[in-house]
Amino acid sequence: MSVVTVQLGQCGNQVAHQLFDTVCSDAQDGQRKTYCTASTERFFRRSSQGDLVARAVLIDMEPKVINHCMNEAAHSGRWSYGDTSHFSQKQGSGNNWANGYCVHGPRHKEVVEELVRREVERCDRLAGLMAMMSVAGGTGSGVGTFVTQGLRDIYPKSFILNHLTWPYETGEVIVQNYNSMLTLAHLYQLSDAILVHENDTVHRICSQLLNIKHISFSDINKLIAHQLGSVLQPALTADSHGGYSRNPLGELVCALACHPEYKLLSVCTIPQMPSASIAYSTFSWPALLKHLRQMLISNSKMEEGIDWQARPPAASERSRSLTGANTSLANLLILRGKDVYSAETGGFEDPGLYTPWLSSGEALNLWKSPVPFNKYEKSATVVSNSRALLRPLDHMVRKAWNMFASRAYIHQYVKFGISEEDFLDSFTSLEQVISSYSQLC
Amino acid sequence: MTQSIVVQVGQCGNQVGCRFWDLALREHANVNKMGEYDEALGSFFRNVDSRNRACGVGGRIQHLKARAVLVDMEEGVVNEILQGPLGEVFDSTQLLTDVAVGHMTYGSCYWEQIVDTLRKAAEHCDCLQCFFLIHSMGGGTGSGLGTRVLSLLEEEFPEVCRIVTSVYPSAEDDVITSPYNSVLAMKELTEHADCVIPVENQSLVDIVSKIKHMSDGGMPGRVIKRDSTIISGEGGLSGAEKPFDAMNNIVANLLLNITSSARFEGSLNMDLNEIAMNLVPFPRLHYLVPSLTPLYTLADVSIPTRRLDQMFSDAFSKDHQLFRCDPKNSLYLACALMVRGNVQVSDLRRNIERLRPSLPFVSWNQEGWKTGLCSVPPVGHSHALLALANNTCVKSRFMELRESFTKLYRKKAHLHHYLNVEGMEQRSFSEALNSLSSLIEEYDHLDATKGKLMRDAARLSIAR
Ligand SMILES: Nc1nc2c(ncn2[C@@H]2O[C@H](COP(=O)(O)OP(=O)(O)OP(=O)(O)O)[C@@H](O)[C@H]2O)c(=O)[nH]1
Ligand SMILES: Nc1nc2c(ncn2[C@@H]2O[C@H](COP(=O)(O)OP(=O)(O)O)[C@@H](O)[C@H]2O)c(=O)[nH]1
Ligand SMILES: [Mg+2]
Ligand SMILES: [Mg+2]
């Protein structure tokens, strides 16, 4: 089964490009025929010459980024984008969600949907759609929301996963909190699950774990692609009867997003280290899993600076706030590499990690693959539907709300047809999400 | 890619514009070594063959024609441009001069001609994004006709962004009536521009003399590369320097940096329509104080991190500002950092974190930073930074302006020159004054919030 990726805006295009590159080089590394075939079928099709072509549609309102991605891919010699699978205009959405959602989105609806339809028709079987974008700009966020809405109408039964890049908190687009808020509020009604990477967190990992001195967007995107790849590459799941799972998106959604009020997913991966050190390092499953578990509990995305004091409450303790631990609705643990079947994952079944409404058997899902991922002999990833994103979400809404209280920048949105009323609706629905996650304990 | 049109009005506007075109050609020649007419060039230039027919992107450069409209009421400056080395990049039909007509005359054939020329220039663009108006506030033509053209642009092309570069007169200006001109023009700028980038002649003079001083008496080991100073036109088409050239090159560089991310690739693009979107929280408060760094580079080429960080600090020091005011002791509403060259996102993060504590931001925009990374540096530099600050500090300069206006106006000095012109009434003067006063008041209101501990707005509550 195959996934069709829709990459939107500068960020969406740059991140998705890196994802294809990572997945492709991982699949082709070494002699692992079944794994390679499964991965390739998932993300690529064959051109008439037999070359790998990404199952992707590239969309941006300005041409530069798309041209760059197409060229880079073509020059990789390993894969490329389809010659006619892209759509761009001349002028970006100017960091204005309203411009993307109310103007560019509707104006190009037909063309964009036709491109996606063509890509879908090239799949023998469609696993689902993945839309990748940032929430801070205007195209990824605004056009991305509009396109997701259109795809939801056309493919009501398909899985739709949105991958969102959240901006640095200390600002890079000044209206980022408005754009993020409007995007999230709308996607929450449309998407099956929303997988989030925060630029701040990824940046910190690049700096502290990978020891990169001058961090570029390319470094950041490699790390995001690594984490995403470790989730989306073929694995054996409970339902896959000994073969590689067929529908990564469907199984991901079923494992994690079982409740319509809880759709926000975050990812942690271990180990992450400078590529030069990988070859000289050995890992044991117990140590990796112990760290990963504590990263999950203490809600830190890195194994450094973990709060080892945080612990799940014992059955006798009623309040979690005392122990400082994160609470999950559901977790998906993915292990890849050597001796994977010997790994002991009982620590993730601790009922203290989860809300009482679900049994830990329902709340934890496990995927495994004996094939090492992206050069790491062993690696473990947890995708978590938990309170992990509550704090950044709350900050985002608070800042947007403070700005809204002074009505700053509102005229820029009104100009394109988004009213104060629309803002209030979006604020209301996100306060609802915040409240739901706050009650998770 | 999109296109922009430069409208240069009056002596100042045309002289600054002329430097812009020279340096823009130099910049593109430096990047585009193959002589191909590419998208980047297309944003400010048309490519035509010998019979003046347009040639598309991808072909060889034949004759480049600036996307410019030159307007003046005297022939001197424009003729000089036409006869100079840059003459070729302008089409005679783009030049509009008329000595006879006063600036408020509607419907005259000169006015019709301006409208016509602008429309033609726009027709040559397949996606017109922005008008750059360059003019002075002091002179009669730039301030009067310049701002009339501005409201015309709004009427004719409401969707196209209008960014105005306004040269403010220094205290001892040669034009006695410059306070009148400036205040009358301010009303139009406040009402009809998307952004105004004020530039002050005194600041330009100071920068020029500082650079001259450094390159003449430089300390040993700190040799300045002559062709890399921001006032240098070396490598351009124009030969001997004219009096204003050094100053005007600074403004030309400012314009090149503003537009660089729209023309060239980068890992974080900043398009022209992102400027107003990010920097203008309230429509009238759109005056953006520019600072440029580096103003020169030292001859040795290795750039330690320290010097890169210095560039960011410099952008917040007064002697790199092109407008005289005191942002650090006022209130930032928003700030953009537009970076060119080999600079990464980690350099941006580090410097924003470092500078933030010393810069007061309005309570609802504590993280009011907009950043852009363009990979092509300016000629002669490895990197450069343009900061645009929307800051209440412009208020004090506007108050000075109001004061010198009132001084003249109280005595009704020189008023008859204006009232003789058809369509001008005394009411225009009081309206302009009111407009300026209310602008100052709006800045005042925001200033009043400074230093007060602002509590978060009470959040919406949700029925559980
Ligand atoms: N991780 C990551 N973030 C990026 C990248 N490029 C841009 N961003 C982030 O994306 C946000 C800006 O959105 P863009 O993707 O540039 O905007 P856009 O969707 O193209 O929309 P407009 O340009 O406004 O039309 C900011 O939060 C950036 O930090 C990238 O390559 N990687
Ligand atoms: N920076 C700069 N300022 C100029 C230049 N020419 C004139 N000025 C200033 O512009 C003002 C006079 O306006 P000017 O452009 O000569 O008048 P106009 O032709 O009637 O618009 C004064 O403040 C001058 O100092 C120039 O080339 N560069
Ligand atoms: Mg963009
Ligand atoms: Mg952008």
TrEMBL record, chain A:
Molecular function as annotated in GO: GTP binding; structural constituent of cytoskeleton
CDD domains with a match to the protein in the record: delta_zeta_tubulin-like
Main location class: other
Signal peptide: none
An example Gene Ontology biological process: cell projection organization
Superkingdom, taxonomy of origin: Eukaryota
Name this protein carries in UniProt: Tubulin delta chain
Organism the protein comes from: Pleuronectes platessa
Automatic annotation (TrEMBL), chain B:
Tubulin/FtsZ GTPase domain ranges (all copies): 51-266
Domain of life: Eukaryota
GO CC terms: microtubule
Gene3D superfamilies, sorted: Helix hairpin bin (1.10.287.600), Tubulin/FtsZ, GTPase domain (3.40.50.1440)
Compartmental location: Cytoplasm, Cytoskeleton
SMART domains: Tubulin, Tubulin_C
Record PROSITE patterns: TUBULIN
Keywords: Cytoplasm, Cytoskeleton, GTP-binding, Microtubule, Nucleotide-binding
GO terms of biological process kind: microtubule-based process
Entries under PANTHER family matching the protein: TUBULIN
Family the entry assigns: Belongs to the tubulin family.
Descriptive protein name: Tubulin epsilon chain
Organism: Pleuronectes platessa (European plaice)
